[in-house]
Amino acid sequence: MTTQDTKLITIRQAAKMLGVHPETLRRWDNEGKLKAVRAGKLGHRRYALKAIQNFVSSQT
Fold it and tell me: What domains can be seen in the chain, in order of their start residue?
């Protein structure tokens, strides 16, 4: 596995990359459209960079 496969980014970073609001990503996570990884004690959403790239590729 490469670093890119395991690199996690914040919801804000993912939203910026995708050009959507963070709330959209929360909704997509709840719907199963783009799943997040939960991190830390509070369960903050993190997104695998590779998953974001795959999602972008599948939308075009």
Answer: 3-59 (1.10.1660.10)
